[in-house]
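Justification of computing resources. Each target in the renewal requires a structure prediction run like the one illustrated here; the chain below, 107 residues long, is used simply to show the kind of job we budget for.
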Amino acid sequence: MRLVVALLLSALLAFGAAKTYTVNLTDRYKVQDKVLEPGQYKVVVEGNQAVLKKGKEDILTGARVEEVNTRYRNTAIGTRLEQNTRVLTEIYLGGTNKKVVFTEKQS
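Resulting C-alpha cells:
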C-alpha cells in the first residue's frame, strides 16, 4: 500500500496537474479510518483524491477542491464530532477562495 501511495504521489507531482497545500494541525483528527497526529501536513489533491503527507506517513483519501464566493483570510479547518472523535471535513486555504473538502470514500 505504501508503494502504491508513493507511486501515486510521484505521478501526480510529475505531471504537474496536482495542487499542493500545507496545513498545520494542532490536535488529533480522523480522516476516514486514519488518525492524523498533530503537525504539519502537505496535502496533494488531484481529481477526486488527496494524499496527506507528514514525514514518512502518507494517507490516501477522497477529496476535491471547491471555490467559494469569498476569500479566506487564514488557513483553517472544518471538523465534525463523531463519537467523541474530531473528523477533519475541510481545509480552508488562506489567501484564496478555495477549500479542500474530504469525502467519505476514495473514488
